[in-house]
Amino acid sequence: MGYDPLEKKRPLKAWEKGGTNRAATLQIMTVVVCGALVILVAAAPHTVPALKRAFKDWFDDKVRRPLRERHWRHVAEVSRQLPRFSCADIGVDLSELHTHVLTLERTPDRRKELAAALDAASIPYSLFFGQDEIEDIAAPITNHYAGARTKELITGQGYRVSSRRQYWLDLISHRKNGTLSGPLSAKLKQRFEFASKISFLQLMHRMISKSWKYMVVLQDDVRIVDSFAEKLHTALCSLPNDWQVLHFNACNERMGEFVGEGVRQFIEGSCTLGFAFTMEYAISVIYERAPRSDHRFDYLAMRGGYLEGAYIADPPLVEESGLRSAAHIGLHTPPPPTS
């Protein structure tokens, strides 16, 4: 259809007109956009983290968690199809598992109940005196196994006392009296956790030096369940042959599906109350996970990277006795004599 000069035209909008109207409109739009950008930048310290958290929560809920659940279901199916661990060479007294009770030499009362229960069950065991947090920790050990933050916190520098031992005893005393500052409390906590980590690693080094295939470690503050030896033997015989660690109990645990009688997948948790493990597991923790790390031992042993070959007893084989773990002994037991 041709051009009709009599056709009625609609009025032009301001931004469609030339000259000053169009320029004014562009200026207004520019000011609005720039103002919005200024507001966004000014609010960024508050809004960006919130947006990141919201996106992370959404991504975890809609993408990561379903993928993880699918992965662990697949792993469980594979584990159920694996041959069972050959436990024929492990007797009912568990002597082949080289059971050790991890404790401190200065805290005999903590281990009395567990020692009596093991004796009553005719389970052979050894006491292992771990690294005492109030005693000096050799510099080569600290240099190899402590991360930068741990080294900074556990050295005790900047406090003039006659000995490092007295320094930590003073901190413990202030902690019990409620007069310990936040930074010093963090220092003390890190010291306890590092000493606990070293204690477990010393046990694993002993296992390797003795060429033991398996080891059981029990914290001195746990109670074993009735018929502990029989139930542990049954659980071991039900494990897939790819197992590297069997946790007897845990805190804040995430468990997967059952893969055998009394054993389930172990995904993550905390609190190393008691566990059985292989030499391969010990080597992995000592040489791959522990060096120059600021993490607690239970993170290295129970959470880092979601361990394959990790299982947990269900129902549990040990229970907490109400005492605190070896990583916090100094906060809940009388300090030893200073002489």
Can you give me a brief rundown of this structure?
By secondary structure, this protein is α/β, with parallel strands linked by helices. It has a domain at 95-131 and 200-329: Alpha-Beta Complex (Spore Coat Polysaccharide Biosynthesis Protein SpsA, Chain A), CATH 3.90.550.
Description:
Residues 158-162 and 324-339 have low confidence and may be disordered. The chain is globular and about 95 Å long. α2 links the parallel β1 (99-103) and β2. It is α/β, with parallel strands linked by helices and 339 residues long. The strands form two sheets. It has an eight-stranded mixed beta sheet with strand order 2-1-3-8-5-9-7-6, with helices on both faces. It has a domain at 95-131 and 200-329: Spore Coat Polysaccharide Biosynthesis Protein SpsA, Chain A (Alpha-Beta Complex), CATH 3.90.550.10. 49% of the residues lie in helices and 15% in strands. It is built from ten helices and ten strands. It has helices at 19-81, 108-120, 139-145, 148-154, 164-177, 182-210, 228-238, 279-289, 297-302, 329-332, and strands spanning 99-103, 126-129, 214-219, 222-224, 245-247, 251-260, 263-270, 274-278, 310-313, 318-320. α6 packs across α8.
Give the key terms:
339 residues; alpha/beta; Spore Coat Polysaccharide Biosynthesis Protein SpsA, Chain A; 8-stranded mixed sheet; 10 strands; 49% helix; 15% strand; transmembrane helix; transmembrane; membrane; transferase
